[in-house]
Amino acid sequence: MKYKLIAMDMDGTLLNSKKEVTEYTKDVLRRAAKEGVKLVVCTGRIFTSAKSYARIIGTKAPIIASNGAYIREKDREEVIYEKYINKDTLIKIIKVSREWGFYPHIYTTDTIYSEKLIHSSLNYTRWNETVPEDEKINIKIVDRLEDVVNKEGENFLKVVVMADEDQIERLQGLKKYIRENMDVSVFSSYVNNFEVMDKEVSKGRALKILAEYFGINKEEIICFGDNENDKTMFEFAGFPVAMGNAEEEIKKIAAYVTDTNDNDGVAKAIEKFVLNK
Q1: Under a CB-based contact definition with an 8 Å cutoff, are residues 220 and 4 in contact?
Q2: Spatial distance between the Cα atoms of 113 and 187, rounded to a whole number of angstroms
């Protein structure tokens, strides 16, 4: 099978534990691109952050960001797909998260709002210290998220809730509550977080939209991932590859398990199945 599109999750997959893409992996990706294979970053990250890594690996294909809520060309303003959370639902999620003792973060395409500089907003504040001006993410700490939502309307792609280690059990309880009581999509990229999007949003649906956009069959797609939010992508792609460090649930539905993200697992599988080396 000649694969025409490679879809790659970022954290825990394309990026190693230092949040880097190794030179070996960059070289393999460049060789795949020279063969005409489209390289697609498919991540839960905000678009601006995903764009920065797409620049590093040299992909010219669109980026799937916010777990599939937003698909956009990296170097152009063309938005291929966007799906925002219903305003009333968003306010309910904010309120219940606060009641459970958490500080939710709400995301637009380039801005993160929170009531406290913690977790995502703190991490991206540190990120802003290391990247060029056009790749910085707007961080806004506000008094009340509800006021922002009422002002901005349906302009938000997702909600992120994160926990400290001693809060993880409670976080999982909140995740279960939202999943069972609200008509939304809920996914985790790691045990200490979950993200909430519109019910139609998933990486798998976004990959399907992008495949139709390019006229590529699902059998011609190879994808890489490591966690729960990659599951729908695995169910759609013709050849899903789990990382060696992936959750067991993801490994079970993979066609192949490669090496870990710290041992260039993505590059090794691309050489084996795409470049046939």
Answers
A1: yes
A2: 20
Q: Residue 268: name the closest of 22, 3, 4, 5 by CA.
A: 22
Among 198, 229, 248, identify where a domain stops.
198
Predicted confidence (pLDDT) per residue in 171-229, tens digit: 999 999 999 999 999 999 999 999 999 999 999 999 999 999 999 999 999 999 999 99
Q: What is the CATH number of the domain that holds 187?
A: 3.30.1240.10
* Number of Cβ atoms within 10 Å of the Cβ of 35: 12
Q: Which helix (H) or strand (E) holds 38?
A: strand 38-41
Phi, psi of 83 (to 5 degrees): -140, 115
- Residue-number span of the structural domain to which 119 is assigned: 87-198
Token reading at 220: 């011609």
Residues recognised as catalytic? 9
Q: What gap in Å lies between CA 124 and CA 101, rounded to an integer?
A: 22
